[in-house]
Each structure stands twice: as structure tokens, then as C-alpha cells.
């Protein structure tokens, strides 16, 4: 299977990238943009695989079965740096490390490829650290940045990158992928793809894990439980608690494993007091783990808010009689009742409230208080 096969509904982008991969001197910096679910990182990795592919024929690059293609897609190729920050923002230290890595010559392939996910998480100071390296990289280094939209990246960065703009794939394409790759029954695959709004990763989780479907159902049913301020506060606290528990469960096992590996690497004694030098390294590790846990929690809450928005999107669809399909078809009657008891203006206001809450939880405000304020505003 070619590396391009995973890019659902991205024919124009695939043609653009395949042409570039055949060039002797492809553009040195790219910016992959598209809404959540469009497959920005998949496209960047597919392009990286094509750049490093071992096929002698340029037209065959991105074959998907050579050693280079397989290791790039697994993010283990020697000439690939696949960076995903575990902090709420890409730190200056992380940016400096990327700049240093970008200076390395390729060891086995033609190019040193730097894939940076969440480039929108770079503040201006961090972007300035990377600017020179992206503008004038070494001859064999290629940068592939990923962000939701060009406007999410500072103009000084995006003006130096060639754009690759992706779109959300069709629900039918995502469903077929779940059926073909994971053996999901058709009805469940189609429902999961619709509920995920064509986001492949989320659709896969909804199709394969019942607990993910249960959590989503609890989130989108929240407006049906808002009959007063006490109910709103309780519902908000419940969603916040679910997000905290999920992020903690995801982090605990990994944190303990990282701690053990660090102690072994530093030669810490099996028993007794930890030497001060090692204690300092442990403190830094724990601080990094706390920042990562906060990001996981924020991302989980953000996903909840996106799911919640689909409820009011469906309500607005019914109120305006657009004829568009409902994301939450299983709640059709409740959605109709809600649409009949409110106005389109009220629904748009509620969607704006959720959007503002998404912005707030990315700052230093209390996520729990932000959710409570949102829930009350949705009454």
C-alpha cells in the first residue's frame, strides 16, 4: 500500500506532494494546514516517507513497502525528526533543540526531514528562535510544519513556507477506512465516522472502544440536563472530572516508567536517599510530566467542547431547515424539541459561548470555573 493511500479525499494535495517528491531540489519548508481530522500530520509523514523513499524511480517514491517508508511512518527513521510537544506551548528550549538537529547531515537518506506538529503552539519568541533555521536551512534539510490554518502561524514563518492545504475527508471515505483497516461492521463504522465529523483518529476510537462512545454520549446530552443553575454546575463539574480522570489515567503509567528509566540512566541507588544531583533531574522530569498532564487534560476538554458544539449545530440545522444531515441522529427527537423551544439567535449565542470557553481553557484560567460559567450561560 502506498503512503498516499491514507490521505483520504486529498487528491489535489497528493498530486502536489508527489510532484515535489520527484524533484531534485524540493521546497525547503512546507506548512500543512487543515481543520481537525483533515490529516495534517499524516500528510506530512507521507511526504517525508516519499522524500526518503528508497525507490530509484522518482515516480515510485512513497511506495509504502521499502524500509525507509516503513520506518518514516513509524517515526523511527534515522533522518527523520518527528516532533510533538508535550507542553501547552512549544518552549524555547524545544525550539533550540530542533534548530540543532536540523543542522545534522542525513545519515542514510537524501534529506534530513523535520516534521513539527502543532506549529500553532509557537509564541512569537519561540518562532523567532526557529525563523533563521526555517528560512535558510542546510542544503539537505526540509521542514514540514503542521497547523490548523495559516493564520495560526506567525506571518514571518508562514511567508517562508510553501502551503499544502487539506480538507476534511468525506464520512463515507472514513467509514470505508474503518471497515477495510480495522474490520469494523459497516453500520458502526458509518455512525462512528459521522459522530467524529470525519476525524479519522476519533472515528477509530469511537468504533473500537465503547467507553469512548459512552463519554461522548454524556457530553452531547449535557444540554438536555440543564434545567437550572444547580444542574448546570453539576453537569460542568462532571465533565471536568471525566477529563481529569482520563488525563491522569493516560499519564500515570507513563510517568512511572519514565521515572524508573531516568533513575537507571543516572545510576541512582536502589534504596536510600537520592543524591541531590539526581533529585534535580527528577524534579525537572516531574515538572515536565505535570505540563504534559495539563495539555492532555486541556485537549480532552477541548474535544468535549467540540462534541458539545455538534448538539447546537444540529439544533441550528433544524431551526434553519437547511436539510443537512444531523451529526447526532440518535438524538433526533430531543434535538427537534430543543429547536422548537429556542430561536436561531439563542443557538448561535450558545455556540459562541462554547467557542469562547475553548479559548479560555487554553489560558491559565481554572478549567472547572470556565466550564461552570459556560454551563450557566447555556441555560
TrEMBL record:
Name listed for the protein in its UniProt record: DNA polymerase III subunit delta
Query: Could you state one GO biological process linked to this protein?
Result: DNA-templated DNA replication
What are this entry's molecular-function GO terms?
Answer: 3'-5' exonuclease activity; DNA-directed DNA polymerase activity
A Pfam family of the record is DNA_pol3_delta2
For this protein, the record's Gene3D superfamilies field holds: P-loop containing nucleotide triphosphate hydrolases
Entry's SUPFAM superfamilies? P-loop containing nucleoside triphosphate hydrolases
InterPro entries, per database record: DNA_pol_HolB (IPR004622), DNA_Rep/Repair_Clamp_Loader (IPR050238), P-loop_NTPase (IPR027417)
